[in-house]
Specification:
Elements lengths: L11 H139 L3 E13 L3 E11 L6 E10 L4 E4 L7 E2 L1 E10 L8 E8 L2 E8 L27
Antiparallel strand pairs: 1-2, 2-6, 3-4, 3-5, 3-7, 7-8
Keywords: Coiled coil, Membrane, Transmembrane, Transmembrane helix
């Protein structure tokens, strides 16, 4: 089956009519395309605007966030710097105070050292003076002893006596005895101490016995009183170079005194000082 296409030729006036007819026929399709193209352009423009706005908002927010973080970090660093500065200032003040205290302590130590040296010097001078005085007294005593010996010597005698009570029913005795032989030599001395009452007596063993005498000797010691014995008198007997001396003293020499130590352990050593008359 054959199909034939027949071309229809129109005149110029008729061609114009045909063209107009064709344009009128296809005009709705072209209008729809143009509307779709405009909508796509609008959507694209809106998308670009949204992207730009989002970018600007992100940029502004990021800038603000970064500024806040930077400001907070700077504020923290500033506060830490202030704290460090205050601590350094306090440490400097403490160092200055310690230095000042050390200077004062050094000055005090220096002053104490100077005082100690002055005291040592004074003690040394006093010791030297005492040494010289002791030598002078020794020379004077020797001179007096020679004079006394040349005149027959000094007889055996008691120069001083004293008994004082102690804790735990103890007593301390002190006797100063003098004798100088005509030949100036030392002589053997035998002292005896006896406690007496109306019916009985008790001989006291001497704690520090004296064997010889040449000039002045000091008889010192302590004893415990028997619990059942109440003395009324105390007798000191001396023998030396053929001489015998007895001195009897009332027991009132051993009267109690106030402010007595509680124990013998609290007592100092026996006093060796000369007895005051």
């Amino acid at each position: 089956m054959r199909v034939k296409f027949v071309l229809r030729f129109c005149s110029q006036s008729a061609r114009s009519s045909c063209i107009d007819a064709n344009r009128h026929r296809f005009s709705p399709v072209s209008s729809i395309g143009r509307e779709q193209q405009g909508a796509s352009t609008l959507v694209l423009a809106l998308f670009v605007v949204v992207i730009l706005v989002t970018a600007m908002v992100g940029l502004i927010f990021g800038h603000k966030l970064g500024y806040q973080r930077g400001y907070h970090s700077m504020e923290t660093e500033t506060q830490q710097a202030l704290i460090n500065s205050e601590e350094a200032t306090k440490e400097l003040e403490d160092t200055r105070l310690s230095h000042k205290i050390a200077i004062n302590q050094a000055a005090t130590a220096k002053q104490e050292l100077a005082i100690s040296l002055a005291n040592v010097k004074e003690l040394s001078e006093n010791k030297q003076e005492l040494t010289v005085e002791n030598r002078q007294l020794s020379q004077l005593n020797e001179l007096y002893a020679d004079i006394v010996s040349s005149k027959g010597g000094m007889p055996l005698q008691v120069l001083g006596a004293h008994i004082k009570p102690l804790p735990e029913n103890a007593f301390e005795y002190m006797f100063d005895v003098g004798m100088l032989a005509s030949d100036g030599a030392s002589k053997r001395l035998t002292p005896t101490l006896t406690l007496l009452n109306d019916d009985d007596f008790v001989e006291v063993p001497l704690e520090y016995p004296v064997d010889t005498i040449e000039g002045i000797v000091r008889i010192r010691g302590r004893f415990i009183m028997p619990s059942s014995f109440k003395p009324l008198q105390v007798k000191l007997s001396l023998k030396a170079d053929g001489q015998e001396v007895e001195q009897i003293y009332d027991w009132k020499l051993g009267a109690r005194v106030d402010n007595m130590p509680l124990s013998l352990l609290d007592l100092p050593e026996v006093d060796d000082s000369p007895i005051k008359p």
